[in-house]
Amino acid sequence: MFILRVHSVDPHHPLDLEETAFSVVSSTAANHPETIPSRNPKYGERRGVVHLYRSASQSSLPNPSSRSTSLFVVAVPNYLSPDGFVRFCETHIDSVLDLVFIRNDGMEDRYSVLIKLDSQLAADRFYSNFNGKRFSPSEAEVCHILFLLSVDYTDSAEVASTPPAGFAALPTCPICLERLDPDTSGILSTLCDHSFQCSCTSKWTYLSCQVCRYCQQEDEKPTCAVCDTLENLWVCLLCGFVGCGRYKEGHAVRHWKRTEHQYSLDLRTQQIWDYVGDNYVHRLNQSKAYDKSVDVNSNCTYMEGDCGTCECSSDDAGFGGALYSSKVEAIVDEYNRLLATQLETQRQASVSLVSIFVTPMLLTSWYYESLIAEAKGKQEISISGAVEEAVSSTMQELQNKLELCEREKNAVAEVNRGLIKDEDAWRKKAKEIEARQSSSLRSKDEMILDLEEQIRDLTVYLEAQKTLNKMTDPSDIREGTLLPMPLKQSSPAKTKRNAKSNRRRN
After folding, report:
1. 20 to 30 Å CA-CA from 128: which of 49, 95, 433, 451?
2. CA atoms within a 13 Å half-sphere pointing along the CA-CB vector of 499
3. Entry's InterPro entries (predicted)?
4. pTM over 0.70
């Protein structure tokens, strides 16, 4: 069974369906109008990215326990419009309840269709009539239909791209689905295995699948997306990541562990490897016995016996071809497992032989390596001891110089303090000398003034004596009157000197 998850990219109406009625009448209704009433299905269109998942625990081929009334047409070519698709399946349109056309803006060459039928019998008939049928007789595209267990719509890309528990992701490209074996893809009938530049792959208009572009474009040489190597390249069927194989750098395996995309295509051999099952899962349409294509019939939904509902009893030859193809694939798988076992046994034997012959050489090598390591250790110890000794002597010299500088600094500081003290004493002495000099100058000035007063008094006295001596009659000054004369203001020292002179006169 399959699960479909759609990441809706319509920001305005992510869950709304646009309804349009189609006036079509099936051939059954035209022949028996009284038994089957005419019904128009609901038509809707949704834009989004489709993610397809299959159950990992059982085969994807349809069986009575894995059918439902919901069908999914994987890819419809873009040249077939929605009206054309309705005309393509108009013989069973009366049993259709809903038709939803899902378009992805990144894939302009195709779209998908989700169909809901009114009963399981109608779904089985629809599947048996249209699965494996060409959309147009002149074109290569084939209608591939899958039974769906559930359909989920979400606006989260992370939720849509996360596989449900117990399910594995499948590519939505029809060419890549046809490359897988029927048990993996659920597709029985194909025209070829699409290997090595097949013509039907180029019929798609735009080749929106990156894997198909790698298979078709010979002029471009792909490289590993991580290490740019050109050898042993594998491309992921789900996202188109190109990585180198496990015998190079193993970037393809790391991509599977990181993203859980388990199917990878070998670009050299066009074979598909399943990392989870650890085996090849590519389709084997080529018969080894008769060297011709095995045409597998897909008209019956049952895998065992005659279902009695889809008129498949006359197609036993095609069903036998499918069984033969399955047997060939089982033989190939068994051969791959046997080859892997033999390679592992040979590897272990080689390892034992290598251990027998190489161990003595390894022991000798280890012995000489130990001697070299010991010599290197001794050399390093001697070098480190010499370095430590040189460093210690240099440190001692620096310490002695530092102590000498400290002593010189202390001596200079002491001299500086003594000079500062002497400077203070000399400043005091200079002040005292200046004070004495100023005092002596003042005393000298006073003495000069006193002497000047005395000289003036003496001059007055001498002039008076001369005047008296010149006078002939002394009676002229008798009974005379002495008038006071105004004197200049003098200092206390002058007053004191005047008093002394007056005392001397008296």
Report:
1. 49
2. 7
3. BRAP2/ETP1_RRM (IPR011422), RING-H2_BRAP2 (IPR047243), Znf_RING (IPR001841), Znf_RING/FYVE/PHD (IPR013083), Znf_UBP (IPR001607)
4. no
